[in-house]
Amino acid sequence: MSRVKSLSSVAFGAAFLLAASGAFAQADEARAKKIAGGSCFLCHGAQGESTSEIFPRLAGQHAEYIAKQLTAFKSGQRKSTAMAEMVSKLTPDEMLALGKYYEKMSIPREEPKDPQLAAMGRYIFHNGNKFSGVPACVACHGSAAEGTATLPRLATQFSGYIHTQLKSFNKRERTNDNAVMHAVVEKMTELEMAAVAEYVSSK
């Protein structure tokens, strides 16, 4: 009998923890939705679709990556006066909750605006440029440009935004991410940056 009671207690405890976890998740999502609706949507759109190529699309981006960038903005490791003010009062839990909130959203794939430029970008993304030493982007960012928890999802991102970030890495104006990017981008021409950005944005 005692064993039956023990098993029942374990089952009850597991069910309680599961229910509590679900309640916390709902609370986190509600909090994230409130934060996003209060300020984030002004630049990043109600569904993370963004209102301009100046601002990145957040829909479908990895939750951990979003939280990592918000942390960098708050610490000053990644420079942005506007973002530093926006994240100044956010807690680490709220940053991750925002990441999970946007990660669930999606943006339809769009055809490239410049197919020839995208074709050039496709070659560089998958093969690199052996003549200048540019490595293939696919090695880190994946064949579908989906990235990982620590590397950004590039697919469906604005080409203009990606191009701007590549130039920022090249000028050492963006220093919060992997130093590998500095070594890669310094070998790329302006045309190659634009081409890769055009290609991955249509993935």
- Average pLDDT score: 90
Helix and strand string, N-terminal first?
HHHHHHHHH
What gyration radius follows from the Cα positions, in whole Å? 21 Å
Q: Percent of residues in helical segments? A: 55-70%
Q: Can you count the helices?
A: 9
Any idea how many domains?
A: 2
> Biggest sheet, open or closed, and with what strands and sense?
none
CATH topology of the largest domain: Cytochrome Bc1 Complex, Chain D, domain 2
- Name the CATH class of the largest domain: Mainly Alpha
Category from helices, strands and their pairing: mainly alpha
Structure summary, number of beta strands: 0
Distance between the termini: 60 Å
Query: What characteristic shape results from the CA principal axes?
Result: globular
CATH superfamily of the largest domain: Cytochrome c-like domain
Tell me what portion of residues adopts beta-strand conformation: under 5%
Q: Unreliable stretches, pLDDT < 50, 5 or more residues? A: 10-20
CATH architecture of the largest domain: Orthogonal Bundle
